[in-house]
Structures are given as structure tokens and as C-alpha cells.
Amino acid sequence: MRMLEALQDPANNSLIGEQVGAIAKRAARDFAQGLRSPYRCTLGEERNLRFARLMARPDPATLARINAHLDAITALLEETAKGSGERLAFSWIVSPHR
Prior knowledge:
- The chain has helices spanning 3-7, 13-36, 60-79.
- It has 98 residues and is mainly alpha-helical.
- It has one domain.
- The mean pLDDT is 95.
């Protein structure tokens, strides 16, 4: 089942919550590994190690732009999954915060 489809049904909330928790834990382990990596790069266009937690109040048009960018990033990562570059872990979670 695709996660986007699963998010549509509140009956899946518990399962989705568990999976998001697992993604967050995996992201923390990936980041810790990245901190130790001899291939880490923290500056410039080729940086491959960064983190952030951001809070925002986007209007509907801005939220649409954010989602379009996340869709584009997802597509880029999927297209290069079997590429010849260095492996990169990329995790993201977006949630309303009220």
C-alpha cells in the first residue's frame, strides 16, 4: 500500500504512526553515521550532511509550492536511486502543528 493512500484512512493512523517513528529513528541513525563519514560535506553545493526543524505558517499557495518542491525532490531521489554517486539518505516528515 502506498503511504499517501494509507494516510487517507484514519483506520491506518496507528500503523502510520509506527512507521513514521521508525523513519525518524532510522533518520537519526543515518545522520549519526553521516557525522562519522569521511565523505561528509557540510558546505557548498555538494553538501550532503545537514539538518533542520522548521516551523512555518504557509498560506495555501505557499503550501502548494512546498509540496511541489517535496514531490520534485522525491522524484529526483527516486531517479538517482541506482546512480553512480555516493549514497545519500533523505528523510522528511511534514505535519500540521496546532
